[in-house]
Amino acid sequence: MVQTIKNDPEVERFAPLVTSQFKVINNEGIEENMTVQTGDFSIFPLEYMNGDAPKNETEIALSYLNSKELEKNVGDKLELVVNGKKQEMLVSGVYQDITNGGRTAKASMPFHFDTALWYEVSVNVKPHVNLAEKMNEYTTMFTAAKVTDINDYLYQTFGNTIKQLKFFSMLITITTIFIAGLITSLFLKMLIAKDESQLLIMMRIGFSIRNLKIQYMIKMVFILGIGIVIGTIISNLIGEPVVSAILSFIGVSHMQFVIDPMKAYLLIPFLLGIVVFITTFFSITSLKKLSAIGQSF
Q1: DSSP alpha helices (H): ranges in 208-267?
Q2: Which stretches does DSSP call E strand in 101-187?
Q3: Rounded distance, CA 77 to CA 90, Å?
Q4: Cα separation, 156 vs 147, whole angstroms
Q5: Residue 62 φ then ψ, to 5°
Q6: pLDDT tens-digit profile of 10-24?
Q7: CA 143 to CA 141: how far, in whole Å?
Q8: Fewer beta carbons within 10 angstroms: which end of the chain, N or C?
């Protein structure tokens, strides 16, 4: 398969990778299983949290969870059992990974067929090549292999995590809107009760219910605007660290948000504005009762 891909004129670049299982000596001197992917990692480079990809047979890169559990960072050394012998490896980098429980490693050492778990070939075709046709060609040619494009691979790898994040995001949005309406209602009732004597005086000197409602509408819109601005600033400052701290348990310690400006800065504030407006409108109906009281004096 590798030889066929290498001779394919429609292939721009490719990288064969082999995932094997090795034994690693932990801090207590006990052997543990470690899933190690071997190959050339300069062709399709990762973005490392610290350090770089392994460049020779004595270097190894660890996933975040492996680095944390083994208490190894860039520049530290660890021992692998290779062909029944202990081999000292230098940690060259630390990366994020959620596959295989977030516990993986990458090395450039030679692999052995007896320890191989699976084989993988990453391929980039040239821009003019029809991807669907090339996938069908490889599927027919390599019947023992599973051919998939990057979108399907990402969905298979991160699909559950993405679904959970979407559900969590939707739940937070609905909860936030509900809390905004509840707090607005309670705040207005408290505010109207506090301003009751002042409102009665204003009604007596000629202010209409409509004028008073407009005043409260303006107050709530002003408070909402301040809240949205402060909330946006705070979420941009501490949002990523908080989510990263939560997801670090599955191997993602540095989450970077990709913000959708339409949703974050237009749709969500608009929904909050609608909820606050409707809640304010119905909450200030108690002004009519005050109007009846004012007219009775």
Answers
A1: 209-247, 261
A2: 104-107, 116-125
A3: 5
A4: 13
A5: -110, 145
A6: 999 999 999 998 888
A7: 6
A8: C
Contact 294, 200 (CB under 8 A): yes
pLDDT classification of 203: cutoffs 50, 70, 90: confident
pLDDT score of 297: 44
Query: How high is the pLDDT of residue 138?
Result: 94
Asked whether the beta carbons of 121 and 14 are under 8 A apart, the reply is: yes
Residue reference for tokens 């993986």:
104
d(C-alpha 183, C-alpha 86), whole Å: 63
Nearest by Cα to 90 from 77, 73, 109, 81? 77
pLDDT value for 290 = 56
Dist. CA 79–CA 101, nearest whole Å: 21
User: Side-chain half-sphere of 41: how many Cα atoms within 13 Å?
Assistant: 25
Residue 49 pLDDT more than 70?
Answer: yes
**Per-residue confidence (pLDDT) for residue 124, from 0 to 100:** 93
Closest listed residue to residue 90, CA positions, set 127, 117, 51: 51
Contacts of 203 (CB under 8 A, 6+ apart): 209, 212, 290, 291, 294
Question: Cα–Cα–Cα angle for 112, 115, 117, nearest 5°?
Answer: 115
Alpha-carbon distance of 157 to 256, in angstroms, equals 18
> Which tokens is 209 given?
């219910």
Two tokens, residue 34: 């470690």
Q: In whole angstroms, what is the distance from residue 271 CA to residue 269 CA?
A: 5
DSSP secondary structure letter of residue 100: G
Nearest CA among 236, 4, 285 for reference residue 137: 4
